Amino acid sequence: MKRIHYASGSLLTGDEIADVLVRFAAALAHNNAAAEVRAPAVVDSGARGEVLLLLGPASQMLAEDEAFGGDELRDEPFVAEFEQRIAALGPHRATYVENGTEDVADLDIDLL
After folding, report:
1. N or C: which end of the chain has fewer CB within 10 A?
2. pLDDT tens digits along 50-75
3. Beta carbons within 10 angstroms of residue 106's beta carbon
4. What contacts 51, CB < 8 A, 6 or more positions away?
């Protein structure tokens, strides 16, 4: 489990969740963007709950290992969603184009 220190508070969550949150915050900062995130966490009672975070270019987070008496908090759909969101923020690579430019009218190849 990891404790994420953020602003004036902290939250306890699973390792994979914490890692993807920190990487998502970094990707947002790189793109000068912000996002509201509802993330799974262990609440004060020790039960699973949810926290609301505002992540933006100035977000400063620290994630550190913390011992926890319960099971590791896991949420594969959450992690997968944020892996996709990180990938969507770039960097983007060129991809193969199946159809060429032969069907484009008035294409000036010298301008390419």
Report:
1. C
2. 999 999 998 899 999 999 999 999 99
3. 4
4. 11, 38, 39, 41
